[in-house]
């Protein structure tokens, strides 16, 4: 681990992640994190608790988000299943759940569109926080932005989370790594960069000038090229539901595939 990455990790130590949840839910999350840590299986905490640790924002949540490598996904579910918890594989492409009555937490190893799998790079920085009494490793700020950049649904839009992460954690975001993550979908990164500049005009220097120029240069070069011959709807990377009509009725090619429940 290089010095910059190590210093990024140390900056997050001593923080606490909070959420507005019931006492019953907090007890379940406390027990779940204890069981997870005892398993020895590497995991990262994301979602509302990680956002709270990084930004200080506290809000209600229905669960905790546990991120892991794809190879560790079945191990985590099996570990909890062996201890009497319910488990469910909601979508083999990216997510499962551990359940206890009406309570649950998500086990995530990819995005809903299967375009940003959790890999070793997510574990290279050691950002930590105290969550439900447990010292846990958080998703790094870079990957927090990456994981939220494509959440753009009518009923759930993570643009404000991205803006707040940039505002509070810009010094700890590895911008070159973020661009590498989003290389194929650089226009999505440009959306969030421009969104941040609009929201916080006095803080626009939080985003490196070289990154903005690189993205604008790409936009300019792309404008010189002809439009694609295949009519696709990449909105499906943001939301299968909101852009379903585009592929079912309007003649656009799909990029993610439909969800079909087993049985």
- What structural class is derived from the secondary structure elements? alpha/beta
Mean pLDDT: 91
Order the strands across the largest sheet as they lie in space: 2-3-6-5-4
Shape: globular
InterPro entries: NT_sf
Overview of the molecule:
This protein is of the alpha/beta class. The chain has two domains: 1-139, Beta Polymerase, domain 2 (2-Layer Sandwich), CATH 3.30.460; 144-252, no CATH class. It has helices at residues 3-11, 23-39, 47-55, 73-81, 141-148, 159-169, 175-181, 186-199, 209-223, 244-248, and strands at 15-17, 44-46, 65-67, 86-91, 95-100, 103-108, 128-131, 134-137. Strand 4 (86-91) and strand 5 form a beta hairpin. Helix 5 (141-148) runs antiparallel to helix 6 (159-169), helix 6 (159-169) crosses helix 8 and helix 8 packs across helix 9. It is globular, with a radius of gyration of 19 Å. The N and C termini lie far apart (47 Å). The relative contact order is 0.12.
